[in-house]
Design a protein that fits this description.
Shape: globular
Distance between the termini: 74 Å
CATH class of the largest domain: Mainly Alpha
Helix content: 40-55%
Number of domains: 3
Number of helices: 15
CATH superfamily of the largest domain: Intergrase catalytic core
Radius of gyration: 24 Å
Structural class: alpha+beta
CATH architecture of the largest domain: Orthogonal Bundle
Order of helices and strands: EEEEHHHHHHHHHEEEEEHHHHHH
Strand order of the largest sheet: 1-2-3-4
CATH topology of the largest domain: hpI Integrase, Chain A
Length: 378
């Protein structure tokens, strides 16, 4: 078992890591300060603690940014680059966390201590070729995220004249093309079965499931839905925010296209009315989905309960996010145009829908072939 104490942990690979927090004035929608955690690594506990202490001092004095040289480590440059981008581009806290999660999980353990001037394309290949914790290869999408971060950070380092070349752009060090295969999705009969079971047993997940499968909204968007976002007269819901996983508070939606007003059917309206009648406490944010104490419903709570339901009903294991994919597939199979599906899902363009769900449109390809056969035969 890893040894812990005072924010210091020994990892399974033997390295020690010491955690610390960056000073932050960012707050979530509830006024709570958003925490930004970082880690210092070392071969020994003392080394990790010493690096943490130095990192804190550097940040307080601005020395880390001031000492930008080719001799600085990749890990230090990545921290500096993220800070620069956060300020220059106005990155949201969730974006910063996503970048740091990838850096801390896949880049820092292998390349964090390598000097910028000594970094090679072989180091990049090692980061891309590392296995997951379960020994399986990294997915192409994870490899692409690692490569994209390295490429952008090293482009910036080149612009700062910290490196002469971007070794991540060497052809042999590029990430493989992301492949989108078939994902586990629900068919119409399974949707009806789950809905019937949840409604019949008065399960608290019933309205959340009906809303999600009908609209294809993201889990965070559904959990952030407020009663004022529901227009009963027009049978519409308005997506105005998303539930932040780390802060458990409502934040701005993922993109500008994520703000949207969706028409919903009577089944959704009925499910939401049921939720309104049974809800004990909507909380200070007037959320549609809350605990009995009025606090937001956590994604982990949904995940565990959904797994139990799938097992009980004999549904193959799938993530809650696969309900969103199921909604997209069912809409496409029903003949809804890809651009309409993209808009309903809140995608920035329909290209993503075509790339991810193109495999579902075999019937539409056959329709196209039959249409052109009719033209040629006429």
């Amino acid at each position: 078992m890893p040894r812990r104490g005072n924010g210091v942990t020994q990892r399974k690979d033997g390295l020690w890591q010491a955690s610390y927090e960056l000073p932050s004035t960012e707050v979530d929608a509830n006024g709570k300060r958003i925490r930004q955690r970082r880690y210092a690594f070392g071969k020994t506990m003392a080394e990790a603690i010493a690096k943490r202490t130095q990192a804190v001092i550097d940040r307080e004095t601005g020395a880390a940014t001031a000492r930008k040289t080719p001799e600085m480590s990749l890990g230090t440059w990545l921290d500096t680059w993220v800070e620069i981008m956060t300020t220059a581009k106005g990155w949201k806290p969730a974006t910063v966390r996503n970048y740091n999660d990838v850096i801390d999980a896949y880049i820092r353990p292998i390349g964090g201590r390598i000097r910028l001037s000594a970094l090679t394309s072989e180091d990049v290949r090692r980061m891309l070729g590392q296995p997951r914790k379960d020994g399986q290869p990294l997915s192409s999408s994870t490899q692409k995220r690692i490569w994209a971060i390295l490429t952008a950070a090293l482009d910036a380092a080149k612009a700062e004249k910290l490196v002469s070349d971007n070794v991540a752009r060497v052809p042999t060090a590029t990430a493989p093309k992301v492949t989108y295969g078939e994902r586990p999705v629900l068919i119409a009969e399974q949707v009806k079965k789950i809905k019937g079971e949840l409604e019949g047993t008065k399960d608290w997940l019933y309205p959340l499931f009906v809303l999600s499968i009908s609209t294809g909204c993201r889990q965070g968007e559904a959990l952030a839905l407020r009663w004022c976002d529901v227009d009963w007269a027009k049978s519409e819901i308005s997506i105005q925010g998303t539930m932040d996983r780390a802060t458990k508070g409502t934040v701005a939606p993922k993109t500008a296209k994520s703000r949207r007003t969706l028409k919903v059917g009577p089944e959704v309206i009925q499910a939401l009315q049921w939720q309104q009648e049974r809800q004990v406490n909507p909380g200070k944010d007037d959320l549609v989905f809350t605990s009995d104490q009025g606090t937001p419903v956590y994604d982990s709570t949904v995940r565990r309960h959904w797994a139990d339901i799938c097992e009980r009903l004999g549904i193959p294991p799938m993530h809650w996010h696969d309900i969103r994919h199921s909604a997209a597939v069912l809409m496409l199979q029903a003949g809804v145009p890809a651009e309409v599906v993209a808009w309903r899902l809140g995608h920035s363009s329909m290209n993503m829908v075509v790339r991810i769900y193109g495999w579902t449109s075999t019937a539409r390809y056959e329709d196209a072939a039959e249409a052109m056969t009719a033209v040629l035969a006429s």
